[in-house]
C-alpha cells in the first residue's frame, strides 16, 4: 500500500515541497528543512520517478534563495528582526543563542556562512546576521551558494545511497524497510536537533 502511494506522489510536488521548506527555513523561520530533505532523498531511493539529483537541486535552490531573502530582511530591518524573532520563537532565538551565533560570524565571516549551513541554528540565522553585521552581499552569496550546494548535495547523496542499500538487502520486505529507515532517520534528525537546541 505504501509502495503504491509513493508511486502516486507527483515528483514535481516533492521537489516543490523540499525547495519551499528549505527556503523558508533559510529565511529565518524555524522549519524542519533537514528532515524534509532526508525524507525526500529516501523517497528518491524507492520511487523511480523522484530523482535524487532534482531533490538536491531543489534543496540547493531553496537554501540559496532563502538565505538571500534572509539577507534582504536583515538589510531592511537590522537588529529589530531578532527582537521580533525572539518574541515569536523564543526557543530558537534567545539572546544567548543569537549572541553566540553573532560571535561566530564576527570571528569567521564567510566561513561561518559556509559551515553554518550544516548547523541548525546558523542555518536559520545566516542571512539576517550576515546583513546586520555588514557582510558584502557578493561575499555572502558565494559562501551561501557553496554551503547550500555542499549541504543539500551531500545530504541527498548520503541518504539516497543508504536507502538504496537498505532496499537491496531487505528487498523481500521493501515497504517495511522503507518505513523503518525513514522513521529511524527522521527520529535521529529530530533527536539531534533537540539535543543541540539547549546549547
TrEMBL record:
Residues 31-160 form the VTT domain. InterPro entries: DedA_domain, VTT_dom. It is found in: Cell membrane. This is Membrane protein. Keywords: Cell membrane, Membrane, Transmembrane, Transmembrane helix. The chain crosses the membrane at residues 12-41, 53-74, 141-163, 169-190. Pfam families: VTT_dom. The keyword DNA-binding does not apply. It comes from Lentzea pudingi. Belongs to the DedA family. It is a multi-pass membrane protein.
Amino acid at each position: 500500500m505504501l509502495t503504491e502511494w509513493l508511486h502516486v506522489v507527483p515528483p514535481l510536488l516533492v521537489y516543490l515541497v523540499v525547495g519551499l521548506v528549505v527556503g523558508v527555513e533559510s529565511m529565518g523561520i524555524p522549519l524542519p528543512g533537514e528532515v524534509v530533505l532526508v525524507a525526500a532523498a529516501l523517497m528518491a531511493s524507492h520511487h523511480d520517478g523522484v530523482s535524487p539529483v532534482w531533490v538536491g537541486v531543489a534543496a540547493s535552490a531553496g537554501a540559496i534563495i532563502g538565505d538571500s531573502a534572509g539577507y534582504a530582511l536583515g538589510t531592511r530591518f537590522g537588529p529589530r528582526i531578532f527582537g521580533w524573532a525572539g518574541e515569536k520563537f523564543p526557543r530558537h532565538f534567545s539572546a544567548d543563542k543569537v549572541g553566540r551565533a553573532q560571535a561566530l560570524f564576527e570571528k569567521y565571516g564567510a566561513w561561518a556562512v559556509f559551515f553554518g549551513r550544516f548547523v541548525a541554528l546558523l542555518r536559520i540565522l545566516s542571512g539576517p546576521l550576515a546583513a546586520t553585521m555588514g557582510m558584502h552581499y557578493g561575499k555572502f552569496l558565494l559562501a551561501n551558494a557553496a554551503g547550500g550546494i555542499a549541504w543539500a548535495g551531500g545530504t541527498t547523496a548520503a541518504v539516497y545511497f543508504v536507502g538504496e542499500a537498505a532496499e537491496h538487502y531487505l528487498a523481500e520486505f521493501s515497504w517495511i524497510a522503507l518505513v523503518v529507515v525513514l522513521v529511524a532517520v527522521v527520529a535521529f534528525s529530530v533527536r539531534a536537533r533537540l539535543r543541540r537546541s539547549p546549547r
